[in-house]
């Protein structure tokens, strides 16, 4: 196939560009011809002027043009070819540079004809200066190019030579495929991204003389993949051997005339012999395989497709939108972006009329009668007949349809509606309207129950039509509205449909259509109708929307309790993107904000406003000026909320912005939420601060907000100054209020502590704070000093970093004592009484009183005023430690008053004294005394007395502190305290001392002086309250002593000979339930398992035989097999699994499969031990498939020796393969934007509970 003639080359030689392109031509021919190159050096373009040889080629390949070995090349385009050849020959013969002439071939190449070339070549060879001399002229180049049409096409393009041959170079094809009229260009990754394994396989296969099928959604996609893979990843040898043949005839001609070529063919003749070439057929799913080698191209993962689009110049939002709109099909992508102008076959008029019902419904389930009826009503055909039509097109080239399990879906709804819109008649719209009305009125009343209750229940989705069909039809409304420019009747028709749908005004309807986010599609289809509906509803007396926001629902989730209204907020946020909607949306959200935010709820109307008006990344296209015009218009009606919003926006560093990858999926395609420039941000921030100041009503909350803003370190200093000036101008609102005095003190302390930090305010602002504090101090001496008796004193001098805690304590006590002295000096005991009543830290107040003076008048004052016990404690602890004699005199003076006794806690001296008191006084003391202080000598007495008065929780707390001190705990009080605490399970004390109880139980378990029978029964009782260590004595006894396990079984299950009518007491039922739950929920190991997870097979076998013999003797053999099967299921799935001993025991005690109870129990436990799995949305069933393969190997390992065990693993393998298929389908649904699961989850089958070994709780 001669595309280039010698005359063409001769004309080319007369042009200037030949000088740079002739070396490139030779380089391409060399790479195409010689697969085993050792070295290629042929400078091209500007490099042709460098010194040295024009080309150096070293190869072991021998061919008619360049012999094997080293070929040294000189090139010339001069008209006087002989002169140039002689000059080059002489120069290189005299100076071959570093080469040995006798080992190299001298090659002279000219693009001109030179009739005397053969004689010149012969003459030079006779001189024997070189190993060989070779001349290549236009004649030889013509011949050489005929064998490599891929290179010839490159030359033809350079020479602007047209040809009638139906072939194309891969470079030319890629330019056409990847570039549109707007200058947009797609990168290679669009065609090959995420298909690395297929690329690798393709490049490996092209080295062989075989035929290959590359199959994808369309021929165009397959061809683009092959071309991009070769251009991006192929070497120069491969790239220069590839050509595209456009029909069968050209493919056959190239295969017969060329060798060592890669011929890409879109023809359909599978009988062409590749000869010494590689044939790559690009096909689609319905084409028959032409070879034994097929490369199936999977649809790229969303992330790969998105990354490829971003690499091609699209932003994140545009890339995600295109990924969604096109179904990751490059054919649809190119049509959407204007790269491809030819319509696919299915879009031809004679075909699209048949497909219109499917294109408009968008997605449906072929096993749901309601969905099938929709198709029948719209198409006027029986469903089976219609599905046959769909299947025909689904198998064709560039099909618009996909099928996952029972779900039919349109791959690209946008593409489909774009072609379908011209064929939608008014009569067709009437039929479509009818079915939309039907699906819109189809609601599931369980949706409200699912959203508003915390109880779990299986929801059957009691609807006639699938949510897939609803989503597909609502999406059609969106797309029809957006293409209203092509059909004027569509926009009013869509508006009317959305209005009719939203008029279904019941709470149940809103729950049902919010659940799967169908509301957002209605909002996108007709924004103005949606906004009007929400406005009318919110302003009505019986507002459905307000009701949704008002109800305190029980439902909780990881993300909070907003699922019942979150999609309404999301739709409103998205609609606010358009500046024309901002005012109306803001008013709605301000109205709903008045309902407040319920605790624990994620998302609320006010937070939506914060997102929309976010200063650094607003979710609206409105300008800064427009935003503040809207807010100004809201001030009169919603001033407190506008103020609060401004504070939220000013506090920008603590605000996060959630972007869902798009504003609206279709209506605002390509528009992205972006961070604003710094200048615009500062302009907006300044306007917000001034609006904050302007709308402050100087209520307590507003003042606190202003103080925070005035000292916000991330706010520019000049804006802080404006807020500070505003506060100073309204100082009367702060005067005398300790709340603000305390706030300012904390601010001063905070900044003094961080004086050296970059973010700390300056001296001027610090002085402003101090002056402000001085100006607003209360006139009342008590109020002015009250802050000194708070638990935390915000005075930097009292809490210097260099001081230790002792110094802090001394300084703070002295500080408070000085305040007490001043108060006493000014107003006497009356001042002390008032400060005692109002102080926050009563204990520290008592200490300060005692430090001030402990005279008898002072003591009488403290006792007789009826002060808080904490104040008495502080006062008398200080007195006892400094003047014990006076303390005991006071006790005697006041006739052993209990409040004086308990004020100092417990100690040895006091405990001995209390023992001398009358019983009533003694009991009163032990009921009320704090147990934070104790002595070793009185520990047993304290524990005994506290237990007597029912303070078992306090005994646990006391014993814990003893344990923390590294001392031994008395065992008997510990057991009694635990038992007493357990008896208070329904009181607040139970939770209060739960941690202490757990610590004591762990201590007793590890104490060698405690007998097993004591601790094991207690651990069983507490097993549902605490997480017991795996090495605790209860577990140890079960795994090492068969009789312990059998005792548990006897509590939980009926015996072999027990009758159904046998009765049990309440205590027997309770211990039975507890034992059953422990066996099924907590026994997670197996006898014979060591701590490192290895299995002692002898120990397991010995335990099994002893356990089963004992169970048979005690008449619990049936239940024992169930439980032992569970134990065997706990053996870790390690490298040597399943072990021989495991298989032997299962076979032995199942009586070679005749008794399935132990086998079923083992299977159930083995399955459950696999646990839950987590994966990314598009991962599919990789985890399950890996497990399925592993279980198949286990089955094969045991098939001929333990067939009953093999059956278990065969069953597990099948179940996991099914699960893998289900997860693959769910991943595919996620990739296509489908949000509803197709199948119910696979549930493990639990062994049946037979009547003769029923658990106690079922008796």
Describe the protein.
There is one protein chain. The chain is 57% helix and 5% strand. By secondary structure, the protein is mainly alpha-helical. Strands 6-8-9-10-7-11 form a six-stranded mixed sheet, sandwiched between helices. It has a five-stranded mixed sheet with strand order 1-2-3-4-5, sandwiched between helices. Strands 12-14-13 form a three-stranded antiparallel sheet, with helices on both faces. Helix 16 runs antiparallel to helix 17, helix 29 runs parallel beside helix 31 and helix 31 crosses helix 33. The longest helix has 34 residues. The radius of gyration is 44 Å and the shape is extended.
Layout: helices, strands, pairs:
Layout: H1 6-13, H2 18-33, E1 37-41, E2 55-59, E3 69-75, H3 81-94, E4 104-109, H4 117-126, E5 132-136, H5 138-147, H6 149-159, E6 167-168, H7 170-178, H8 189-192, H9 196-205, E7 211-215, H10 219-233, H11 236-239, E8 242-245, H12 248-257, E9 262-265, E10 278-283, E11 293-296, H13 302-311, H14 316-326, H15 330-336, H16 349-361, E12 363-365, H17 369-379, H18 383-394, E13 401-404, E14 407-410, H19 413-420, H20 426-440, H21 446-452, H22 467-482, H23 490-502, H24 507-515, H25 518-525, H26 527-539, H27 544-550, H28 566-575, H29 582-593, H30 605-613, H31 624-650, H32 678-694, H33 700-710, H34 717-729, H35 738-753, H36 763-776, H37 781-785, H38 805-838, H39 842-852, H40 856-864, H41 869-882, H42 884-893, H43 898-902, H44 908-915, H45 919-928, H46 939-948, H47 952-964, H48 971-983, H49 988-992, H50 994-1006, H51 1012-1022, H52 1033-1040, H53 1042-1052, H54 1066-1082, H55 1097-1113, H56 1117-1129, H57 1140-1149, H58 1157-1168, H59 1182-1198, H60 1203-1231
Parallel strand pairs: 3-4, 4-5, 7-10, 7-11, 8-9, 9-10
Antiparallel strand pairs: 1-2, 2-3, 6-8, 12-14, 13-14
């Amino acid at each position: 196939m001669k595309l280039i003639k010698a005359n063409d080359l001769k004309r080319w030689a007369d042009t200037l560009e030949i000088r740079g392109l002739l070396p490139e031509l030779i380089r391409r021919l060399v790479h195409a011809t010689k697969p085993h190159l050792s070295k290629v050096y042929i400078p091209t373009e500007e490099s042709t002027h460098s010194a040295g040889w024009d080309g150096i080629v070293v190869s072991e390949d021998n061919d008619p043009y360049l012999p094997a070995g080293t070929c040294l090349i000189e090139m010339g385009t001069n008209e006087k070819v002989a002169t140039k050849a002689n000059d080059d020959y002489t120069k290189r013969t005299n100076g071959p540079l570093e080469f040995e002439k006798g080992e190299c071939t001298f090659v002279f190449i000219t693009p001109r004809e030179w009739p005397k070339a053969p004689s010149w070549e012969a003459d030079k060879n006779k001189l024997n200066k070189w190993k060989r001399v070779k001349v290549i002229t236009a004649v030889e180049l013509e011949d050489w190019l005929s064998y490599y049409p891929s290179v010839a096409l490159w030359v033809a393009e350079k020479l602007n030579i047209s040809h009638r041959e139906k072939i194309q170079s891969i470079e030319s094809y890629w330019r056409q495929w990847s570039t549109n009229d707007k200058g947009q260009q797609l990168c290679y990754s669009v065609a090959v991204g995420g298909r690395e394994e297929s690329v690798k396989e393709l490049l490996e296969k092209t080295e062989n003389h075989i035929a290959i099928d590359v199959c994808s959604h369309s021929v165009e996609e397959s061809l683009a993949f092959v071309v991009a893979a070769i251009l991006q990843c192929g070497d120069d040898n491969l790239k220069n051997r590839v050509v595209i043949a456009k029909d069968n005839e050209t493919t056959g001609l190239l295969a017969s005339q060329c060798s060592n070529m890669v011929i890409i063919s879109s023809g359909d003749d599978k009988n062409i012999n590749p000869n010494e070439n590689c044939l790559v057929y690009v096909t689609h799913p319905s084409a028959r395989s032409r070879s034994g080698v097929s490369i199936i191209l999977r649809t790229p993962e969303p992330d790969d497709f998105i990354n490829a689009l971003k690499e091609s110049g699209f932003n994140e939002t545009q890339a995600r939108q295109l990924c969604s709109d096109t179904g990751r099909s490059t054919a649809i992508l190119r049509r959407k972006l204007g790269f491809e102008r030819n319509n696919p076959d299915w879009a031809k008029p004679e075909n699209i009329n048949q497909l219109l019902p499917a294109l408009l419904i968008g997605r449906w389930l072929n096993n749901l009668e309601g969905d099938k009826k929709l198709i029948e009503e719209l198409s006027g055909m029986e469903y089976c007949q219609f599905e046959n039509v769909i299947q025909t097109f689904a198998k064709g080239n560039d099909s618009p349809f996909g099928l996952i399990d029972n779900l039919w879906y349109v791959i690209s709804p946008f593409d489909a509606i774009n072609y379908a819109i011209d064929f939608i008649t008014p009569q067709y719209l009437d039929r479509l309207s009818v079915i939309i009305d039907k699906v819109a009125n189809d609601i599931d009343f369980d949706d409200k129950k699912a959203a508003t209750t915390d109880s779990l229940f299986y929801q059957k989705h009691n609807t006639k039509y699938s949510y897939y069909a609803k989503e597909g039809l609502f999406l059609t409304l969106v797309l029809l509205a957006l293409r209203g420019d092509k059909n004027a009747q569509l926009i009013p028709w869509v508006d009317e449909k959305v209005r009719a749908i939203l008029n279904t005004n019941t709470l149940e309807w809103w729950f049902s259509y919010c659940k799967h986010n169908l509301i957002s599609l209605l909002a996108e289809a007709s924004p103005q109708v949606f906004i009007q509906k929400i406005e009318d509803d919110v302003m009505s007396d019986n507002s459905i929307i307000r009701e949704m926001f008002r109800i305190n629902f029980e439902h909780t989730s990881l993300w909070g309790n907003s699922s019942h209204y979150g999609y309404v907020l999301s739709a409103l946020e998205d609609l606010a993107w358009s500046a024309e909607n901002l005012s109306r949306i803001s008013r709605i959200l301000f109205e709903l904000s008045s309902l407040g935010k319920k605790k624990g709820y994620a998302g609320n109307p006010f937070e939506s406003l914060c997102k929309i008006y976010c200063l650094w990344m607003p979710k609206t296209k409105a300008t800064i000026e427009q935003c503040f015009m809207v807010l100004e218009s809201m001030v009169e009606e919603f001033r407190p909320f506008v103020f609060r919003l401004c504070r939220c926006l000013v506090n920008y560093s603590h605000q996060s912005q959630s972007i869902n990858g798009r504003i609206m999926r279709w209506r605002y395609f390509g528009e992205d939420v972006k961070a604003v420039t710094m200048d615009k941000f500062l302009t907006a921030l300044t306007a917000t601060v001034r609006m904050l100041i302007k709308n402050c009503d100087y209520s307590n909350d507003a003042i606190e907000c202003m103080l925070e803003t005035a000292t916000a370190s991330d706010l520019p200093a000049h804006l802080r100054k404006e807020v500070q000036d505003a506060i100073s101008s309204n100082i009367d609102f702060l005067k005398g209020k300790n709340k603000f005095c305390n706030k300012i003190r904390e601010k001063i302390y905070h900044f003094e502590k961080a004086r050296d930090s970059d973010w700390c305010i300056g001296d001027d602002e610090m002085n402003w704070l101090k002056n402000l504090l001085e100006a607003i101090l209360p006139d009342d001496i008590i109020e002015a000093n009250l802050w000194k008796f708070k638990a935390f004193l915000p005075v930097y001098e009292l809490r210097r970093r260099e001081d230790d805690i002792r110094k802090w304590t001394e300084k703070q006590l002295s500080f408070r004592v000085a305040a007490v002295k001043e108060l006493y000096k000014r107003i006497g005991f009356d001042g002390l009484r008032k400060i005692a009543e109002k102080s926050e830290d009563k204990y520290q107040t008592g200490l300060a009183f005692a430090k001030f003076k402990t005279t008898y008048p002072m003591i009488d004052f403290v006792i007789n005023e009826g002060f808080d016990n904490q104040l008495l404690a502080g006062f008398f602890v200080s007195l006892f430690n400094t003047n014990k004699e006076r303390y005991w005199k006071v006790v005697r003076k006041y006739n052993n008053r209990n409040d004086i006794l308990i004020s100092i806690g417990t100690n040895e001296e006091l405990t001995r004294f209390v023992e001398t008191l009358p019983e009533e006084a003694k009991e009163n003391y032990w009921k009320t005394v704090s147990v934070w202080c104790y002595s070793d000598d009185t520990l047993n007495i304290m524990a005994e007395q506290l237990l007597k008065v029912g303070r078992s929780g306090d005994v646990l707390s006391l014993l814990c502190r003893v344990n923390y001190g590294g001392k031994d705990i008395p065992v008997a009080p510990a057991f009694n305290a635990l038992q007493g605490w357990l008896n208070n399970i329904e009181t607040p004390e139970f939770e209060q001392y739960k941690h202490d109880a757990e610590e004591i139980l762990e201590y007793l378990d590890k104490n060698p002086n405690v007998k097993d029978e004591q601790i094991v029964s207690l651990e069983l009782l507490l097993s549902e309250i605490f997480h017991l260590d795996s090495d605790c004595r209860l577990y140890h006894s079960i795994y090492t002593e068969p009789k312990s396990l059998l005792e548990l079984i006897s509590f939980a299950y009926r015996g072999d000979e027990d009758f159904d009518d046998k009765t049990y007491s309440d205590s027997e039922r309770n211990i039975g339930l507890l034992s059953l739950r422990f066996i099924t929920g907590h026994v997670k190991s197996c006898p014979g398992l060591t701590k490192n997870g290895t299995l002692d097979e002898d120990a397991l076998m010995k335990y099994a035989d002893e356990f089963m013999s004992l169970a048979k003797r005690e008449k619990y053999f049936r239940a024992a097999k169930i439980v032992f099967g569970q134990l065997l299921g706990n053996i870790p799935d390690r490298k040597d699994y399943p072990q021989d001993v495991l298989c032997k025991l299962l076979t032995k005690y199942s009586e070679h499969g005749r008794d399935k109870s132990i086998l079923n129990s083992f299977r159930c436990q083995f399955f459950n031990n696999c646990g839950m799995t987590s994966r990314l949305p598009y991962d599919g069933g990789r985890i399950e498939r890996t497990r399925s393969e592993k279980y198949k190997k286990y089955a094969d390992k045991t098939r001929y020796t333990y067939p009953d065990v093999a059956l278990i693993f065969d069953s597990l393998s099948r179940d996991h393969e099914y699960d893998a298929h289900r997860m693959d389908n769910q991943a595919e649904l996620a990739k296509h934007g489908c949000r509803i699961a197709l199948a119910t989850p696979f549930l493990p089958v639990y062994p049946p509970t037979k009547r003769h070994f029923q658990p106690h709780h079922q008796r």
